[in-house]
Amino acid sequence: MKKSLQPQTKKILVFTLILLTGWVNYSFRPQTDDQEWLSWSNKCLTESYNPPPDVKLKKWELTLTNDYFLRLRKTYQHGRQEYFSFNLHRLNQVQYQGDDKAGTLELSTNADDIIVQTYEDPKGDIDSMSTVLELPVRNMSSARLDSLKNALNYFKAKAL
Q1: In the beta sheet, which residues pair with residue 133?
Q2: For a Cys-Cys bond, which of 8, 19, 41, 68 suits 88, CB 3.0-4.6 Å?
Q3: In the chain, how many domains are there?
Q4: How far is residue 72 from each of residues 3, 28, 30, 41, 45, measured CA to CA in Å?
């Protein structure tokens, strides 16, 4: 004689199997990939960076590299360049002054850890160090700012 399961027992068994399958799939799911964080961070920085409307500025590049350096290069019409760079493990604080539409993102380090260089400057090339990098930004909602801070802190921890 064959025993069959009662409908209530079948429902519980099916529900348990669904939960177990979901748990196994979630458990072996890779965590957010560094490359995804890096892509999002670069997209956020590129979309948000708002250089002053300087008619002499030809182009700019703002990049977070896969070796955890934040780099900003500005190139002006006559070839003059300004270059700023620092490793995120030196990042001390991220502050924002402004509103959702426009403001300044201040990235600071504990010491003079931000490389500042100029090239092709009529006044002469300059190599110096700084403690603060100020980035003019636009469309920086509080949620976007929090996400960017989280990403920068994530990479700061990875860079240590």
Answers
A1: 107
A2: 68
A3: 1
A4: 73, 38, 31, 14, 10
